[in-house]
Amino acid sequence: RHVTDLAGRHVVVSAGGTREPLDPVRFLGNRSSGKQGYALARTAAARGARVTLLSANSALPDPAGVDVVPVGTALELRDAVLKAAVDADAVVMAAAVADFRPAVYAPGKIKKKEGGAEPEPLELVRNPDILAELSGARPRAGQVVAGFAAETDDVLAHGRAKLAAKGCDLLVVNEVGERKTFGAEENEAVVLGADGSETTVPYGPKETLADTVWDLVAERFPE
Ligand code: C5P
Hints:
Elements: E1 10-16, E2 20-23, E3 26-28, H1 35-46, E4 50-56, E5 67-71, H2 74-84, E6 90-93, E7 100-102, E8 124-126, H3 130-137, E9 144-151, H4 155-166, E10 170-175, E11 186-193, E12 198-205, H5 206-219
Parallel strand pairs: 1-4, 1-6, 4-5, 6-9, 9-10
Antiparallel strand pairs: 2-3, 7-8, 10-11, 11-12
Helix pairs in contact: 1-5
The structure holds cytidine-5'-monophosphate.
């Protein structure tokens, strides 16, 4: 594939999964490997884009020619997204962002209770929804915003509702399963457009889904 249809464009991709610390040794996290987000970053770079990859706790090596910004928590990711999005033509949020974080961070390691007593309940507070905030704010005119949604049931109905709630242009909906989505090399998905479009991407490499996402993003660029 020798298209450079993204030349001159700046795209921002988030990848991996946020970790919300409880204390210096523990966190609340998720199973996102970062593979889909890294595939998006690689394919965009191959198509000529300047790529900023906001990487949340992924073990993957930095893709060549991509500006990688490491982030840990949802709040750090939010700051990094809002900063990078200022001059971005497109933002694709592939990271799995924690919806909640521990209400308090214990600066010292949390200890077991004396005498085998029951633990305190864990208090959580909401994290901001970065995708919804960005979709509402659009720091740059004509910016295309895409998100991902992993669902286990009624995938398309939940996807449509989520697309509307978030206000993004595209939502890549994938079903959580054994050989796909989290940690897998392959994926299958339906990409929903705010214009009502529906693009099915059959089971295959995450690069193929990534290229389809960039096709759909590029179609939505103004002019
Ligand atoms: O609501 P849900 O977590 O299923 O939405 C998934 C999409 O929203 C992903 O694109 C994810 O990156 C984004 N998201 C976000 N901020 C959150 C939660 C999810 O940007 N707090």
